[in-house]
Design goal:
The protein is of the alpha+beta class. The chain is built from eleven helices and 18 strands. Helix 1 packs parallel to helix 5, helix 1 crosses helix 7 and helix 2 runs antiparallel to helix 5. The longest helix has 24 residues. 27% of the residues are buried. About 1% of the residues have low confidence.
């Protein structure tokens, strides 16, 4: 599968550094730049606009850098002016529908972040730094470059690792602000991306860079997946540091999904990363293990298993196995160390296929009385077709009905099974319409 891997670990991300790298991936960089120069025709008060993609040396290697020479009479514009100019350019330059949607999403997210920071309506906010024409240069240039490399195609994946935000303070139109800027923080809120402060005192992620990144919805990956490399490009921003490279790397290639048979490629939509955490115990009582299970069940786990075993010297043991999403792994390892007193914990992040499921409710009649019963439907989508994998009644509901009626759970399951055919047909009709 064609993919773009973004390595911002030694740079952070801004609009110009991202655009400079992407222009190194497209065959028509000069055409894109020439179109962007025409933005001065779409915004009033842009007196001078020069754009050049150059090569400079950073840390001993040649990297792309975007040079802008801008002169504007206006120091702030309102959202409507920027939005109108953006969409007029998108239409006249014949961007794809996906490219138009992405560009609008990026600009809208910037407006929302600013509005939330100032606790005001979008139409009332006064834009300063992000109202400059260079914001539109970044958004439109990145959108066209991504469109050119096929990044908006359904079978294209984008990955991104950890992102350094920088630190210290920055002068803005509103005074001195801490880094990361409030709008940048707002943009990252609620995303799956991993960010961290530092490693230097300077702004490494700008609001525009953050907006461009989050709207790609990249797959968070600390270590890049296996892939066949087609091309790699380097870029840098305007700042140079003594102890930080400030070099962004982009990799384009084909991800190797060797763990999925080609004929089952539709299952890729259900792939997710999970972490398996394990430890072996041969010197602990059942009471402590039971208490640990009670504690860990209230944490962010997917499942827990206690497996009996035999260790060296023929000692009876237990294997404690916990499944979780990777972001919770160290939190859970700490609990295991503290509660179990184990000397070591193994963990491994792997892929799993986790299909769709829905929890629904029906009623069954037992001894001439109706009872509500929840059930779970699991299903997969293969193209336009939906396939039901299983329909299973919830055990806790069956147990409660059994307690109320005296009817064994296995008999209640038979009653429920008599309704499964109709449930299946009704569910597929709703799903496909």
């Amino acid at each position: 599968m064609k993919s773009l891997i973004i390595d911002a670990s030694n740079s952070g991300i801004s609009g110009d550094i991202f655009l400079a790298a992407l222009l190194g991936l497209v065959p028509n960089a000069a055409n894109i730049i020439n179109d962007l120069k025409e933005l001065k025709l779409f915004l009033n008060d842009v007196i001078k606009l020069e754009i050049e993609l150059t090569k400079i040396e950073r840390s001993g290697i040649k990297v792309n850098q975007l040079k802008l020479n801008i002169k504007e009479e206006k120091h702030h514009r309102n959202p409507k002016i920027l939005k109108d100019a953006l969409n007029k350019f998108l239409d006249e330059k014949r961007f794809s529908e996906s490219g138009k949607q992405y560009a609008n999403n990026v600009l809208d997210s910037l407006f929302r972040a600013e509005a939330e920071v100032h606790q005001d309506q979008i139409e009332n906010i006064h834009l300063h730094e992000i109202s400059s024409v260079d914001t539109l240069i970044d958004i439109l240039g990145v959108s066209k470059s991504l469109e050119t490399i096929g990044a908006f195609d359904k079978d294209f994946e984008i990955y991104c690792g950890k992102i350094p935000l920088g630190g210290g303070t920055i002068n803005s139109a509103h005074g001195i602000l801490p880094i990361p800027a409030p709008a940048t923080v707002k943009l990252f809120e609620g995303t799956d991306l991993i960010v961290y402060n530092g490693p230097i005192d300077s702004e490494l992620v700008t609001p525009t860079g953050a907006a461009l990144l989050i709207n790609l919805k990249p797959i968070n990956k600390v270590h890049s997946p296996e892939f066949n490399l087609e091309k790699m490009v380097y870029s840098t921003g305007q700042k140079s540091f003594d102890n930080f490279p400030n070099i962004l790397r982009l990799f384009v290639g084909n991800i190797v999904h060797s763990y999925i048979a080609e004929g089952s490629s539709f299952l890729r939509q259900y792939l997710e990363d999970i972490t398996i955490i394990e430890t072996d115990l041969d010197d602990i009582s059942g009471e402590i293990i039971g208490n640990f299970v009670k504690i860990i069940e209230n944490e962010n786990i997917l499942d827990i298993q206690i497996i009996p075993g035999i260790t060296k010297k023929n000692r009876p043991s237990h294997i404690i196995k916990v499944l979780c999403y990777p972001k919770y792994s160290f939190q859970l390892i700490e609990i295991m160390l503290r509660e179990l007193g184990t000397l070591g914990v193994r963990y491994n992040t792997i892929k799993r296929v986790c299909i769709d499921r829905k929890l629904e409710e029906t009623s069954i009649q037992v001894n001439e009385k109706d009872f509500r019963l929840k059930y779970k439907i699991s299903y997969i989508k293969k193209g336009k077709e939906s396939i039901i994998v299983n329909i299973k009644a919830e055990y806790e509901d069956l147990k409660n009905i059994s307690k109320a009626t005296g009817v064994p759970v296995k008999d209640l399951q038979v009653i429920f099974q008599s309704k499964v055919s109709k449930i299946s047909k009704d569910f597929l009709n709703r799903l496909n319409h």
